[in-house]
Specification:
With 502 residues, the protein is α+β, with helices and mostly antiparallel strands. The protein contains 20 helices and 8 strands. The longest helix is centred in the middle third of the chain and has 44 residues. This is PTS system, trehalose-specific IIC component.
Length: 502
């Protein structure tokens, strides 16, 4: 077992001593601090500690990358510092004092969507697989025949059976998988309202019930609303007023507005209703008004806001200047990650999926991750004789190609700066090509090389080309920049740093 005593002692000294630590915990690979004065942490000294693989500040937390042995390091640090760790949630709460209002808003978005992203990723993969079953022609299984003569379409091209048309087994698989896909996407509001209740500390089952009232089978399905005449929309008749019975399947913003209203109502009612009767009246007076307001005010408003946002983004992605949108988004997505603003893209992606059956935004995010990993690959070869560097860069590149960018971005690329810029350029070019050809994903997926599994099958060829661009360009530019003396002098201090508490 590695002895981290000296490294832990050095980290405590370089971070400003125990009096500078407001809270500390650790995750799978990183020590996570909330510092009373972040300026006292000496980045350069800390990054020279043998056990440390990089540092960065995000969401008001000063994070030190240790690696898989972080739990052992943390135990040693706890003994030396005398600081007992707290839970991750307590660290998040403490870190808010170092965040400005925008950072706090982005942090809330991240905490709402993080618990449901695994389900969304699975849903995207399932939709992609179903696309293959339903769309790919199976020439080897025979052409569609009519009286022994191959059928052709209006253009005179042969018509081929798809996989589900020629195989009862795969037809059954396709139908069965929709059970999961529908549960994930059509009933997404349930996950959102539950996650908000969990994040806000209100009653989670009430969040779940609220979500169900937005997607109940007795409501007109949201996907059927555009094709239904106003006179045919069902409604609740209260005599002197009526409420349309419209569902909000797959809608993000209506669910978020309703979820936060429920949480704030419940938390407020707890303060004014006596404890003896709170179990009865708090849920009643929180849930019933929220459901009513959700279907009369928040739902319609949220739907309209969602339409505006998705239409604006979709117009940018598919309009005459889509190439510019793709170039800019592809280039500057990585800097958004540094600030935490990238969390807003989850809601936009899901709204695009709900409104247009896919997202053009997420493919560029996957390409950005690939580009960052590719820049690290170049650093591996440039510093191939440096064993300590390899111990950091090789795992960082692998995790980045699998969609986890933090070790690569904060441990390598931002530290040297020029690989970060090389990756931005490569990502921008790949995003440009992806937007020109309207590359679309079924939904959010694994944000690296496996991301192609979430891409709609008709765009696989062009997305492969974009992946090649995101791999080759950052590698070539990183090598080129490494030969330039000006770039060699650059480092993390040359990058714009997000200011805490501003």
């Amino acid at each position: 077992m590695v002895d981290f005593k000296q490294d832990a002692k050095q980290l405590l000294e370089d971070i400003g001593g125990p009096e500078n630590i407001s809270a500390v915990t650790h995750c799978a690979t990183r020590m996570r601090f909330v510092l009373n004065d972040p300026s006292k942490a000496d980045n350069k000294k800390i990054e020279k500690i043998p056990a440390v693989k990089g540092t960065f500040t995000q969401a008001g937390q000063y994070q030190v990358i240790i690696g898989n042995e972080v739990a052992t390091f943390y135990n040693e640090f706890e003994k030396i510092s005398g600081k007992s760790g707290v839970s991750k949630d307590e660290v998040k709460q403490a870190s808010k004092k170092n965040q400005n209002p925008l950072q706090r808003a982005m942090s809330v978005l991240a905490e709402v969507f993080s618990p449901i992203i695994p389900a969304i990723v699975v849903g995207g993969l399932i939709l992609g697989f179903r696309n293959i079953l339903e769309a790919i022609p199976m020439e080897t299984l025979g052409q569609a025949m009519a009286d022994g003569v191959p059928q052709v379409n209006a253009a005179g091209e042969p018509i081929y059976n798809t996989i589900v048309q020629v195989s009862q087994f795969w037809s059954g698989v396709n139908s069965f998988l929709w059970l999961i896909g529908e549960a994930i996407f059509h009933f997404l509001p349930v996950g959102i309202t539950w996650s908000i209740a969990k994040k806000m500390g209100s009653t989670q089952i009430l969040g779940i019930v609220l979500g169900i009232t937005l997607v109940s089978p007795q409501l007109l399905n949201a996907y059927a609303v555009p094709g239904t005449a106003a006179a045919d929309i069902p409604f609740w008749d209260f005599g002197f007023f009526q409420i349309d019975m419209i569902g909000y399947q797959a809608q993000v913003i209506p669910a978020m507005l309703a979820g936060f209203l429920l949480a704030y109502l419940e938390l407020g009612l707890r303060k004014i209703i006596p404890q003896a009767i709170s179990m009865i009246f708090v849920p009643l007076f929180a849930l019933v008004p929220t459901v009513l307001i959700a279907h009369t005010v928040l739902g319609p408003i949220g739907w309209q806001i969602g339409d505006w946002i998705s239409n604006l983004v979709y117009s940018g992605l598919t309009g005459s200047l889509s190439w510019l949108f793709g170039l800019l988004f592809g280039t500057f997505y990585a800097p958004l990650v540094i600030t935490g603003l990238h969390h807003m893209t989850n809601a936009i992606d899901l709204q695009l999926v709900a409104d247009f059956g896919g997202t053009n935004l997420w493919p560029m995010i996957a390409l950005s991750n690939i580009a960052q990993g590719s820049a690290v690959v170049a650093i591996i070869f440039i510093n191939r004789k440096n064993k300590e560097e390899r111990d950091i860069s090789i795992p960082a590149a692998i995790s980045c190609y699998l969609g986890v960018t933090e070790p690569a971005m904060f441990g390598i690329n931002i530290k040297y700066a020029y690989p970060f810029f090389a990756a931005m350029i490569g990502s921008g070019i790949a995003g440009l090509v992806a937007s020109i050809f309207n590359v679309t994903a079924n939904s959010i997926g694994v944000g690296g090389l496996p991301g192609i599994l979430s891409i709609q099958n008709q765009y696989w060829g062009i997305f492969l080309i974009c992946m090649v661009i995101a791999i080759v360009v950052p590698i070539v530019l990183t090598f080129a920049f490494s030969k330039n003396k000006r770039f060699q002098k650059m480092g993390i201090d040359d990058l714009p740093q997000p200011k805490l508490g501003s």
